[in-house]
Amino acid sequence: MSNCQNLEPSGSRIQSPRSLLNRSIDLVRVAWITWMTWIARLHRSIRWHVLALSMIAVGLSSCMSGCMSGCMSSGNSLSVLLPAPTGSAPIGLANGQSVYEYRSIHNPDGIGKFYLGREIAQVMGHQGAAWLERPSRVREEQPDRLIAGLKLRSTDVIADIGAGTGYFSFRIAAQVPAGQVFAVDVQPEMVDILNFLRQEYQINNVEPILGSETNPQLPPASVDLALMVDAYHEFAYPQEMMQNLWFALKPGGRVALVEYRGENPLIPIKGLHKMTQRQVRKEMQAIGLTWQETQEFLPQQHLMIFQRPQD
């Protein structure tokens, strides 16, 4: 999600009882999310220590077994193989040439890496989890209207890429009771928060997934709709990520990108955290997605729909 400027308007120094109550509720919510993040990080630390000890034990056991059997050349090891992608390769990705450019002088809000003429923005870390759950987001982004605009079916499989705290994942889960939501994030701390909230809310059709910067780690041809809300512009490897996402889509599957309108300089969001419709269409076309429509009913964001062609 975007590392954005403050969207709250300035107001009077005199606050009404209602505004004081709203501020108190906001502070309690932020404190709760901060505490939850700390608990998730502690849980993750303990979990990885246990996992490390288990791996050491497995390694020692394998080594002793190999010595006793005299089959050291057998190469005992644990490996996980993902199924090979199927279908036609996306357009523009088969020539083996890098499309990235690096510049030492660049926007301080970017990483100095450029893709098809656009500088990639810095990622908002898990430390900003509370900001993703701010109450004002309902007014600013109108999540219910956005989800309605996706025209979901009850059996759809949805991938929320850059899910963060699951702000959209858990809302969408109620719209696909016979389907599933893959909540993908590249930050382990965010995935810990997703797992915590899934248990807290007792929602069974949301599956948190730890992706990488180049791969969302989704099963091939499994997704009806991939949603990215204010996330795509932060992908460090947009070409590789979208290529792997392309293979995760079912034939005819859709991609929905929600980005603050880069065409409007009055929207109070940092420049690299906005995108123009023209730039988005150019980048989606580069990996073989077909533009379907752009909806402009949100206050400050484009909702752009693309589709993987039928095989």
Task: Describe what this molecule looks like in 3D.
The chain has 311 residues and is α/β, with parallel strands linked by helices. The protein has a domain at 100-307: 3-Layer(aba) Sandwich (Rossmann fold). The chain has eight helices and eleven strands. Strand 7 (223-229), helix 7 and strand 8 form a beta-alpha-beta unit. Helix 1 (17-69) packs across helix 6 (188-201). The two termini are 32 Å apart.
Tags for this model:
311 residues; alpha/beta; Rossmann fold; 8-stranded mixed β-sheet; 3-stranded antiparallel β-sheet; 8 helices; 11 strands
| CATH-level-2 architecture of one domain | 3-Layer(aba) Sandwich
Overall average residue pLDDT: 81
CATH names the topology of one domain as: Rossmann fold
CATH superfamily membership of one domain: Vaccinia Virus protein VP39
